[in-house]
Amino acid sequence: MSAIGRLTTIGAIAALALAAAVPAGAGGSGGLVFRPPFLPAGKVGVPYQVVIRVSRDGHDPALGKNYPSYTVDCFGATPTGGFVDDCSKLPPGLKLTATYSSPSCSPPLQKPHCVLISGTPKKAGRFSFDISAPDVTSLAVRGVLRLYTIVIAA
């Protein structure tokens, strides 16, 4: 890897770490907002469903951008700047649908981008995972990570 490539990777890691440390939406009106800020608890054997809405000023973050690969999904960052699939950290029995659409969600892009977490939990515990959303307004940062936790009772 070239020196420029290493610097780009280091800068991306630092920016992702900073983005993950700052609460979503804390960067002012232009920042990404993840709603709800916390996920409700669940119970083993009881159906669970929650919609996470990601927006910038109330709209899909890709609104007005030429960004064909825009996705919100459960990804985390590795120490080397790569991405890992955090869906494996969801409670057993739950899955994430990254292309969820409803009357209050995109499309069209004038509505928030939504993902759905649903299923029937099979195991009690505390499960933490990252939801990532590309930051299409930044040249240096390609994503914002938001840590979520679901507590499943027995």
Summarize the model shown.
By secondary structure, the protein is mainly beta. Helices cover 12% and strands 35% of the residues.
Outline the low-pLDDT stretches: 1-29
Total DSSP helices:
1
Topology, number of strands: 9
Query: How are the strands of the biggest sheet laid out side by side?
Result: 1-3-7-6
> Radius of gyration, Cα only, in angstroms?
16 Å
CATH classification, class level:
Mainly Beta
How far is it from the N-terminal to the C-terminal residue, by CA? Answer: 49 Å
Helix content: 10-25%
Shape: globular
Total tally of structural domains: 1
- One letter per element, helices H and strands E, the order comes to HEEEEEEEEE
Helix/strand structural class: mainly beta
CATH topology-level fold name: Immunoglobulin-like
Proportion of strand residues? 35-45%
Biggest beta-sheet profile:
4 strands, antiparallel
Task: Name the CATH superfamily classification.
Answer: Immunoglobulins
